[in-house]
Specification:
The protein is α/β, with parallel strands linked by helices and 248 residues long. The chain contains seven helices and twelve strands.
Amino acid sequence: MMRALILGGIADASLLAAEIARAGIDAVYSYGGRTRAPADQPLPTRIGGFGGVSGLADYVRREGITHVIDATHPFAAEMSRNAVEACSETGTPLIALERAPWTEASGDNWIEVGDVNAAVAALPEAPARVFLAIGRQHIAPFAARRQHAYTLRFVDPPEVPLPFAADVIVSRGPFTLEGELEMMRTQGITWIVARNSGGDGARAKIDAARMLGLPVIMISRPRLPERLRVESVTEVMQWLGHRTCLGA
């Protein structure tokens, strides 16, 4: 009997959960636990980490998981690496549902960097108004550049003091181009720092930056081990041996 484990984190993971539920596949949806009010899913849900590679491998064995789908955020590198190792250890088939990264288009002004520390170094010396679109776990290094006025956007309000003064916007995507243009104009944004997450839900800020002629410090995705990778829910369902009826 098939029993799938979805390691969630991107919007397409919810679409996948709906398709799996419609197909009548036994499955569990796992949240990492960083969002305090995660979206409801049509599948049994667990929240929290597994305890590294060994914990994930134990879970796979204990729960009779036959297939693992890594639909985590492209920058959730530790979880993705753990999934590769745990599935190798247990002999469990693994597939990654990973949206394609954004590519620089005509009119974009990108400064591509390898990590958050490089993004801090790429900021100008002169004071700027910077939109940090990188998630709360990665903002601490920017405290070294306190001459800038930062705007942050989180799904949940901060529970602990931030490492520097900043304007905080609490909002959940997807975001529209019109909304991003208004936000950037209202906040007087002059620089943007973003991770190359890809997909449509977070792309509007990149399009807005192009329209406003703003420089974007773009953090490249981390390198991950080789694994089977697809970009659509349909391909995952085919891998599971089922056909999809998206939009039905």
